[in-house]
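User: quick one, fold this
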Amino acid sequence: MKKIKKVVLAYSGGLDTSVILHWLKEKYGCEVIAYVADIGQEEELEGIKEKAYKTGASKVYVEDLKEEFARDYIFFAIKASAVYEGAYLMGTSIARPLIAKRQIEIAKMENADAVAHGATGKGNDQVRFELTYYAFEPNIKIIAPWREWEFTSREELIEYARKNRIPIVATKKKPYSMDRNLMHISYEGGILEDPWVEPKEDMFILTKSPENAPDKPTYLEIAFEDGAPISVNGKRMSPFELISFLNKVGGENGIGRIDIVENRFVGMKSRGVYETPGCTILHVAHRAVESITMDREVMHIRDSLIPKISELIYYGFWFSPEMKCLKEFIESSQKGVTGVAKVKLYKGGCYIVGRRSEKSLYMKDLATFEKGKMYEQKDATGFIKLNALRLRVKTLVDKEEKFK
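Assistant:
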């Protein structure tokens, strides 16, 4: 087997990847390049470059992918109304393909022998990373330490880190795993593995509890153009800026907390707690603009695809042929989804209270209960009879069979 001399590691600065960086050097005697994807982790990235060097990295890449993440990944999920199992907005799932794509690009630039990640052998992320690796570099060597090493728990990693003087944040007292990016923060593992135990309030970072949210509602007007959000309260913002702003406002109002047990791709059930304030607001607002601008049959077809698209995202098939086809349909369906949704935020609730569009298909003359010019109510008689024809025939035939 070819000796591994250089590895590009997807590095977050957390417990797992900090230990992995040291372990790779110890196990393979190789050079390790730490690659950090900046997708909106904010303060988590403070000092990360220095930390990677201190832990043993020969080189560190910190790549600013925030706008690309918001524009090409998060906004697509909004357009597709992608929600896994009816609740999870997939902040982690959507981020992994982008992180892995750039990792492969760096591996090629550095002429690396392998890539590595910190995903466990029980989770979804290993699949998401590696499907993307193979999609862009079919013969890439992948090192997945959680499937190789002797450690079986994060407590053992903590002991290894202390023994080797690796700087870490996780402790035995607070051992749950966190993943943060522009879209959300996820919490899982450790004290959250009992699905009956309520999370402690001091765990949450992005959102206030609904009980402590303001006693007065906050109103927002969110504008969309061809399905993509472009402004809030009349102020145009970049994709990253817009989501960041909504995260702050939504968090203040207690928007976007969920606590679910989901079905992992590898076959087990897992409990996850999530904070997704900004994108929760965007999903609600986007549906409101669609409701007045989108053709009924196009909407129904798109809605029928939500489970499939969400499954492909969750499972890691972002760069698959089927996903490419579905993306083209989604983008086509969003042409003309242009308008403004008025949203009221109040103590954890996100409510639509208005919507308008120059391309609206809603016509008051058609919808009104008063006398209108475009619709004759008596025309409904023939419409109903034609649609009832097969039902009437079936009943008549059944009656004849009964009396034979």
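User: anything notable?
Assistant: Residues 242 and 254 are 18 Å apart (CA to CA).
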